[in-house]
Amino acid sequence: MAWMEVEAKIKVKHPRILKLKLKKVTNFIKKEIKEDSYYTLENFKKHYPKKSLRIRKKGKQRVVNFKQWVSYDKGIHVKKETEFTVSDVKKFLSLLKDFGFKKWISKHKQCTIYEYGHTSIELNKVKQLGWYLEIEHLCKKKEVPKAKRQIREVIKLLNLKSKHFEKRGYTKLLYEKKEKN
After folding, report:
1. Which of 38, 42, 93, 95 has the most Cβ atoms closer than 10 angstroms to its Cβ?
2. What whole-number distance in Å separates Cα of residue 177 and Cα of residue 159?
3. Domains defined along the chain, listed by start
């Protein structure tokens, strides 16, 4: 299934204070761990890959995801997102290996998920990176302007500052951190 992912990502300095705000104005949904592995055909030892796919562990199944950048405007990303479930991960990984894909990075997130209207809000503790807030809306292409307005409404509601918006994705942040070490 392909959707448009409309998302803002914000670096969080004070997660406890933000949790209190979230409890007041959103609906708590659940807590979960997201363990992701990323694969690419590119030489990631020379440069950050422009294209890769993600395999997320969800119980016994794996969810494959890849995104295509569409736009970035005032803290809000828009990406075309394609996602599907793989029931036989060993066979799928064998296929990736046969085609030349290599695992290049892993990501581990502890997520507390909230909802405000049709907008998903995740307070994430990302291993090696710290705390982030993701405000996300999945929609059809024609609904992107409405999704952006809803995300801006949440940003205003939580009194978040644009100076804390993060333009880079988690994999880019992890890659840059690895390069420094």
Report:
1. 38
2. 29
3. 2-180 (2.40.320.10)
pLDDT per position as a tens digit, 60-92: 779 999 999 999 999 999 999 999 999 899 999
The dihedral region occupied by 100, where left means phi > 0, alpha psi between -120 and 50, and beta the remainder, is: left
* Per-residue pLDDT tens over the stretch 100-114: 999 999 999 999 999
Number of residues that make up the chain: 181
DSSP state of 54: E
CA distance 32 to 22: 17
Residue from 164, 146, 136 nearest 67 by CA: 136
> 164 phi and psi, to 5 degrees?
-100, 0
Q: Measured between alpha carbons, how far is 92 from 113 in angstroms, rounded to an integer?
A: 29
Residue 120 CB: number of other CB atoms within 10 A?
A: 18
Q: How crowded is residue 151: how many other Cβ atoms within 10 Å of its Cβ?
A: 22
> How many Cβ atoms are within 10 Å of 79's Cβ, its own excluded?
18
* Amino acid identity for residue 16 in this structure: R
Taking residue 41's Cβ as centre, other Cβ atoms within 10 Å add up to: 14
